[in-house]
Amino acid sequence: MNTLRLLLLILLGVIVIIYFPRGVWREFKRAWARRDWLLRVAVVGVGIYLLYGLFRMYQQGMLDWW
Fold first, then answer.
1. Over the stretch 7-28, which tens digit does the pLDDT of each residue have?
2. Measured between alpha carbons, how far is residue 64 from residues 31, 42, 54 in Å?
3. What is the pLDDT of residue 25?
4. For residue 24, how many other CB atoms are within 10 A of its CB?
5. Could you tell me the residue ranges of all domains in the chain?
6. pTM for the complete prediction?
7. DSSP letter assigned to residue 60
């Protein structure tokens, strides 16, 4: 991701927070209340992604110990 795209995403986030402060705060509180569930989903997602990467490496012959 280049710097310009990152800056545009940050600017968009700031604009959304300025125009909808209550909605953003409400969603933040709701996400914070469910942080355990969100963390589990993120860990499972990253784990599946890493397993898929290992499988692709195996298919390409990069893992010779299997």
1. 999 999 888 888 888 888 898 8
2. 43, 30, 12
3. 85
4. 14
5. 1-33, 35-66
6. 0.56
7. T
